[in-house]
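Appendix B, Record 12. Input sequence as logged:
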Amino acid sequence: MQSADSPACAAPVVEVDKKERREEEDGRKQAEKTKTVLGLTQIEAVILSAHTIVRFFLQSSDFAVPVLLATLDPSSLLAPALFGLCTRAAKFLLSPSLGAWMDRRTRKQGLRVGLLMQVVGSVTACLSFLTLALFLPDTSETGAGQEGEGGVGGSGMLFSTPTTAMASVFLLIGGSIDALGNVVITVAIECDWVTLLVPKPRLPTVNAWFQRMDLAMEIAGPAAVGAAIAVATTRTAIAGVIVAVYVCTVVSLVFQYAVMSRLLVKFPSLMKRKVDEKEKSKNPLHGFVKGWTILLHHKGGVWIVVGAMVMIWITVLSPHNVLLTAYLTEQGMEAWSLAIFRGVGAGFGVASTIMAPLLIKKMQPDRSSLLFLWSESCILLLSIPCFLIATSPFMLEKMGIDETINATTAFAFPPQAPLATAMALIFLLFLILARFGVYGFSVSQRVILQELTSEATRLQVFGAEKSLTSLASLLVFLAGVILNDTTLFTPLIYVSTGAVFVGAILISVWRLRYGAYYASLTAGAHDEDKELKGVEEEDEAEKDGEREGDGEAGKEASV
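Logged structural output:
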């Protein structure tokens, strides 16, 4: 008696899989014939559109939460700090377990759980905000910074009464659940679904579009919410804006689920996942351990590629970094100057995502990743002397500005010190130019991981990566809390530049050690695509022959 794994039993299954694959490839080929205005196929445009709508409202809520917390309790930074700490800690601790759990379930189950987590988290946070807005005393009447109800003042009014304290705790819980649900949806769609639905030669282009739209929504979402909050003059009106944002977020999530569910129906192979039934019953702790184990022992040096990405997250040298923004503000940089700096940085980031796929296509992802990361390292290294010259005591003394004037540093661009002002501007320009390497490497690195990982381990690897990048941002956040003096900002610049150099060294070591393996792996994938394309051409030739035969038979019949 033959086993289920024997060739005789496996042959019919293979034939069925090939037939389904050909049918799905015919569907993809038909979709690729109809291009959208932006050069994307229908499938790519649908996935990207749903993702962009959700990302707009998620970025809006991320911006609105600290604004409302500061409005509710301007006397303390405790609540915003705890909110950021809890969400990042949750992603660090649970992302590997979520990735392992998703690899043991069908894609539809993962989609449902991610949607449910984000809906529950959004509703919980929304109700918590409403409770805080109703029960907290209005600081506009008592005066910001004075002791409110409960007599806590600077220690945090959000925890002054049992009701507000409970609402604050539920806000932290809801925000953490929402963040974890976002990890599930993001990893599932961007790292798994796209890999299966998009042809390999188009992966750099589609990944770049995801990066581009994420960056665009990072600007558009906060801008829209900021305008709405500016119009809302009262605390109740601001709370109404937050509620509206959360409601729209839930609606957009349901829309995204509907879109992805239709794709599941259109492409039945997405419903199938190779799942080990023994692994299916393991507990979450096992998933956490296995996620790290798979990352460290995966073929192709995956842990090195992930480590390089983690290094570029250990930085304060980004136009959108909170610590850099706070430092420049304290050093006298005007709000309009900061807005221009952030806007130009975002615009250059979008431009880099347009150029990155072209370089990746010409140089391949492994070589282009070296170019992107080493270029960023060299640019940041050049920025350090500019920063030191602009902020040196000698330059500050040469400015000769009265201490009573706010503009006491080069970042206020004083006309009395043209050299220091020039160095400060060049420093900021270097940070903007470094965005090219950051976003270019992000696109290359994702393509490399998508090609190195298999369907059975992809989500666990990307889940572990999300965990490590969350840890990196958490460490930067904690460093800013500890080194809160502006005179200690220079060591943070050294650490940020050094971390990028470590990432460049890691990706160089990976290419030297695993470059041949990656080349052979991608060559096999391209050969498989060519084989499938040859089969499709043979089918087309057979169809053409049948049409010609039918045409000749028709002519004979008419004669």
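Residues 346 and 357 are 18 Å apart (CA to CA).
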